[in-house]
Amino acid sequence: MLDNEEPGRGPAPWHGFNSAIEVCLAEYFTFRGRASRSEYWFFALFMLLMSIGGEIADNLSGFRIAPDVGLFGTILAIALFIPSLAVTSRRFHDAGWSFWWYLMVFLPVIGWIFIFYVLVTRDQLPNRFDVVR
């Protein structure tokens, strides 16, 4: 951080895997502020690993809600749904975009390209989504 920068202003800080998971789960319902690329992508990796673990647990236990829907995977998906939206919202804010642009996900191909672009970019300068902590 530069000497003349205010804390909580500007790009979100880099996070390691454990730190990103802790921040995302601690800010379960926080849709304001910014999330760094590392925070977002480490949480996405965590969600992927948890879904694989849930699928393995479902296959080993045999607990099924429906033929192709496992109990543990469903519980994990429900538990991680809100924090995944929250970190995505903060990630959009770090790139300088409103989370309403996430609705582009419903446009085939072009929408997904746009979403990916937003998730991999960031706004180096303070922007309207900064939250002073």
From TrEMBL:
It comes from the Bacteria. This is Uncharacterized membrane protein YhaH (DUF805 family). The chain crosses the membrane at residues 40-57, 69-87, 99-120. One of its GO terms (cellular component) is plasma membrane. Pfam families: DUF805. Keywords: Membrane, Transmembrane, Transmembrane helix.
